[in-house]
Amino acid sequence: MATRDKWGSKIGFILAASGSAVGLGNIWRFPYTAGKNGGALFLLFYLISILMIGLPVLIAETSLGRFSGKNPVGAFKSIRPKGQWKLVGYFGVITGVMILSFYSMIAGWTLGYFYKAITGKFKTMTSANAEQIFTNFAGNTAMQIFLLACFLGLTIFVVSRGVSAGIEKYARVLMPGLFILLLLLLFRSLSLEGASKGLEFYLKPDFSKLTPGIIIDAMGQAFFSLSLGMGAMITYGSYLKNDENLVSATAWVAFFDTFIAILAGFIIFPAIFSQGMSPDQGPALVFNILPVIFANMPGGIVFGSLFFLLLCIAALTSTVSLLEVATAYGIDEKKWSRKKAALIVGALSLLFGIPSVLSYADIPFFQKLPLVNMSFFGLMDLLWSNLALSIGALFLAIFVGYVWKTSNALKEIAKGTGKFKFAKFWSISVKFLGPLLIIAVLASYFFK
Ligand code: PFF
Question: Ligand 1 centre from 268 Cα, in Å?
Fold first, then answer.
């Protein structure tokens, strides 16, 4: 594997890993999950999860990736060739394919809303009709499958071109653009009448409402947002050069990712409350509120189109990393060509994405599955985003803490980092704090 493709630079890794981290998770999933879970209370536990477990696991995943130079399955095998640890790698590969399937459906929504924006459809959207417009849009199954396929096609195209030529080149230019547009929206949203109610919801926790469900959602969101628990960062770490400072690179990634999610909350909640809408409307939330904001804003067509275009691109840099995990597995372990691997995995995701699309069609079975009482898409999101990533992160922490051993991981980390100031806290978090917290949260969820 002497010729394994590498990131062109540290900034290349930071941008590509931030590209993976920053996506629909920050701008679509974070606001609606916070909205469902009482706002401020969720924000608090989200931040705690990022600092106490998220960043330490991010460092652990990336260092395992760089050390092994492999995909998740190969990474576990390179340290424990015998035994069952490689199953954790396989679990990550499968999780990636499944998340990709429904994530691409939402990415298809952003593509559709970009089209609405650029053709001036937002002009007629109000807080009264936005929900109906969304329901009609998401319920159009043929169009949704078409959008899903388009988005997966785009992802396959980028991944086929390889790491530094494809992924890095796109991430470099586009991430800063999204950031600037978000700042603009922030000022717009904060200046709306009634914005302060939204700020209160977002910043003033009501501890009497605390439930285990809120904490598991916050932790799951932290893993989802940082792209942890399924080996994406093992894979991206495998393309990181040895002389790069792994700690500062990952810390920047966590910082950007968290900053953008928080920013999204500061945009969405003041806007929602100023329009008298409910923060508790689930996955449609940002699609219901943002067009209304753009409709009433000078230059709304331009800003609205740009926003949804950049959101598509942010989603693309994330779907690329979701696809890259299973693709790297196909290349390394199955000896497939990059193109073949990306095509096969992409096709599988398309197949699994279709029942999620049907959750928004007028088909009672997919809207409310028997026994679980939630939609097919809702079940997929719960199983793969919240549970699978938490379980994946748990096993990763145990593996790095006790099998590879933190002392070895620290040697890997030291390569380009030199002195790692928080080495002690990091070891404690990976060996004890992280696993215990994850187990406690999962247990409280299952045995409530
Ligand atoms: N972190 C991405 C987001 O917040 O949109 C989603 C994601 C990408 C999750 C890659 C997991 C992953 F491996």
Answer: 20
How many residues appear in the chain? Answer: 448
Separation CA 210–CA 205 (nearest Å): 9
Question: Which residue, chain included where needed, has tokens 């395992």?
Answer: 64
DSSP string, 258-283: HHHHHHHHHHHHHHHHHTT--S--GG
d(CA 319, ligand 1 centre) in Å: 7
pTM (2 d.p.): 0.94
Q: Which secondary structure element, helix H or strand E, spans residue 306, and what is its range?
A: helix 300-334
| Atom nearest to 226 CA in ligand 1 | 1
- CA 192 / ligand 1 centre spacing (Å): 31
Residues of the chain with pLDDT under 50: 1-2
Q: Which of 48, 92, 85 is nearest to 433 (CA)?
A: 48
The residue to mutate among 22, 27, 99, 384, having the most atoms of ligand 1 within 8 angstroms of its beta carbon, is 99
Sign of torsion over alpha carbons 228, 234, 237, 243: positive
The model's pLDDT over 361-407, given as tens digits with 9 standing for 90+, comes to 999 999 999 999 999 999 999 999 999 999 999 999 999 999 999 99
| Cβ atoms of 235 and 72 closer than 8 Å | yes
Nearest CA residue ID for atom 3, ligand 1: 25
Q: Which fold has domain 10-362+390-446?
A: Hydantoin permease (1.10.4160)
